[in-house]
């Protein structure tokens, strides 16, 4: 009996590392639909090729989708549709004019006191509505070797108190790369906070390891993590556990969402999201009006409808669970409240 149970233990698969989860992410539309028990005919506007911005979705995210539901709010965030090819006036490739904010290669400065470092162009998931979906890394100076110039620029500008790691997704950097970056920031006396904008804690929760928590908690700078969740269904058990680990390490957790037609454009869905976030130790921060990026016009909600949703939300929730409804206006001094 002992021998048999030992064998059982040995054949039990080890949990996949986050790198393995990335490597096994789905890139094939037919395979994704099959995993959900859906037929391509269930989705009339499907674009199975999606050559310009291919499907990419980790299996841990697919596992949170409702099988058999072509309108699943998680599926809708990743599924390529032919309507993305439509030319809609006002929807352009760089809707937030990142190109005008390049401060050093891969470094953007739009707002007082903070800069945004584009650490990588890779993401663990391709969001169909992403404002950087047409990003040309070369235009913003992003390469694997740009960090040193960016760090030098940050060190020179004593008005900066906060550095934001963005991308792509900065938690696709491994711990050694993050350690190096954080050590460089620690040496810049005027920096007080380091903020990480990432979808990894919810897309691939195994990225959140005790080593990562220690690495962030030991920094001289106060760490903040801003996650990106659009629907309560994205916060399953493993996601909640990962977020609780970060909270236990003393890291402030905030969430930003994008208001998306067919995903989260009703007040009950948004209220559930805020409640579930708070249960996971996360405060709602921003609810973004969609940036008018080419290919995403079908996700847009009118400002009038967005403000109506916000009013409904205010009537249902305590003030601290109501996100700030904002839009990015190129050239403005801050994200602009609606
Ligand atoms: C959105 C953004 C920030 C962060 O703005 P906060 O209002 O501080 O969250 C900083 N830099 C750039 C370039 C941004 O686009
Ligand atoms: S995770 Fe962020 S940067 Fe990456 S595709 Fe989604 S919205 Fe774009």
From TrEMBL:
Modification sites for N6-(pyridoxal phosphate)lysine: 335
InterPro entries: Aldolase_TIM (IPR013785), EpmB (IPR022462), Lys_aminomutase/Glu_NH3_mut (IPR003739), rSAM (IPR007197), rSAM_sf (IPR058240)
Reactions this protein catalyses: L-lysine = D-beta-lysine
Record flagged with keyword Transmembrane helix: no
Positions contributing to [4Fe-4S] cluster binding: 123, 127, 130
Domain named Radical SAM core: residues: 109-321
Family: Belongs to the radical SAM superfamily. KamA family.
Name the UniProt record assigns to this protein: L-lysine 2,3-aminomutase
Lineage of source species: Bacteria, Pseudomonadati, Pseudomonadota, Gammaproteobacteria, Chromatiales
Underlying gene: epmB
